[in-house]
């Protein structure tokens, strides 16, 4: 079933498409200039040091591979954050009583279900707004969620959150914003600050932000998490080459590259690279350019910054947000922080 409604209340006109009952799709217009893959590739690939932004990992296959990473023995962040969510969900829901749950980079929303279960138990209902670049993943997870929860309204938001948040459809009532999975670590310091400023700008008194961030820890644990024995993270990383081939009419050959992830202790971040196995030329038709790569030359494909409680707190404070609760496991491997607008406590009624 397809129906369209233009919402005139929003200064940025947006379209709501009803997919099935209780499931709608919205495209979020970018309010800030945001580069497309052609611009990013010409900025990032042509000159050394070479890099591509991590958002291009997440086509349909990349999103499925990320989900498979979450199941690996070595990838502790998902399990750790899920356990934290399971134990704090009731408190968060009954304290905030959100009318809306808006999740940035929602993926499969596997962990978010603990919040919906807590709503169920507390007799609360909320509309869910998952925001992601991967339209297929949003559609699949939305379909599953409306089947699993017979009260849940799911409004998928297709777009790039780097394009700003002022284009989100209007929502009446209290909002709980989620940014989980340690995805904040994929931003540089400046990008994280800009993104949290954007989040703060759409938050009203009584709203909350639940932020999941990975913590600094033993580099062996970190190294293993990004170099799983079954090679799924390697496949995820190499999938970027398939995306570039498809989107830019390029001829990258994945067997000519290897996955490398290492912990840069000084910068406190995992750096993930695709490393050229040999001297090679790669034609990128959309850029009208041929890349000449030496053996061992690297393309940076992702950073994943690791935080301490103190630098997380100052990151939030700098954006005008205050830490209200900090949930962490005994081993301190992950932080789940509930933040509120400074001077405007998360509601308790
Ligand atoms: C590391 S995964 C985390 C997924 C999920 N939140 C979790 O905790 O398992 C990052 C998610 O953010 C999405 N994403 C990455 N960059 C994005 C962007 N610029 N705009 C919107 N979504 C983005 C990806 O498609 C993916 O679903």
TrEMBL record:
Keywords: Methyltransferase, Transferase. The keyword Secreted does not apply. One of its GO terms (biological process) is methylation. Residues 39-340 form the Histidine-specific methyltransferase SAM-dependent domain. It is an enzyme of class 2 (transferase). Gene3D superfamilies: Vaccinia Virus protein VP39. The keyword Transferase applies. This is Dimethylhistidine N-methyltransferase. GO terms for molecular function: L-histidine N(alpha)-methyltransferase activity. Its EC number is 2.1.1.44.
């Amino acid at each position: 079933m397809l129906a369209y409604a233009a919402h005139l209340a929003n200064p940025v006109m947006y379209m709501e498409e009803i997919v099935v009952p209780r499931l709608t799709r919205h495209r979020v217009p970018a309010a800030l200039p945001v580069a497309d893959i052609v611009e990013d590739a010409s900025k990032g690939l042509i000159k050394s040091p070479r890099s591509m932004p991590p958002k291009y990992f997440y086509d349909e296959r990349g999103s499925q591979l990320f989900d498979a990473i979450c199941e690996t023995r070595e990838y502790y962040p998902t399990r750790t954050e899920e356990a934290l969510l399971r134990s704090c969900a009731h408190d968060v829901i009954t304290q905030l009583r959100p009318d809306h749950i808006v999740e940035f980079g929602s993926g499969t929303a596997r962990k978010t279900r603990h919040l919906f279960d807590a709503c169920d138990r507390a007799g609360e209902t909320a509309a869910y707004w998952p925001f992601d670049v991967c339209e297929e993943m949003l559609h699949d997870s939305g379909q599953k969620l409306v089947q699993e929860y017979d009260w849940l309204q799911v409004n998928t938001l297709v777009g790039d959150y780097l394009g700003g948040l002022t284009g989100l459809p209007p929502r009446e009532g209290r909002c709980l914003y989620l940014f989980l999975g340690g995805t904040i670590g994929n931003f540089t310091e400046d990008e994280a600050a800009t993104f949290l400023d954007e989040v703060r700008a759409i938050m009203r008194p009584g709203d909350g932000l639940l932020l999941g961030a990975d913590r600094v820890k033993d580099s062996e644990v970190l190294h293993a998490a990004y170099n799983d024995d079954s090679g799924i993270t390697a496949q995820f990383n190499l999938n970027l080459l398939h995306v570039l081939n498809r989107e830019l009419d390029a001829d990258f050959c994945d067997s000519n590259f290897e996955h490398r992830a290492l912990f840069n202790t000084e910068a406190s971040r995992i750096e993930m690279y695709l490393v050229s196995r040999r001297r090679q030329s790669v034609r990128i038709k959309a850029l009208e350019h041929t890349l000449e790569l030496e053996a061992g030359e690297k393309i940076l494909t992702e950073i994943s910054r690791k935080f301490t409680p103190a630098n997380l707190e100052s990151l939030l404070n700098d954006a005008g947000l205050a830490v209200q609760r900090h949930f962490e496991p005994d081993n301190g491997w992950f932080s789940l922080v509930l933040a509120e607008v400074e001077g405007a406590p998360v509601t308790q009624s």
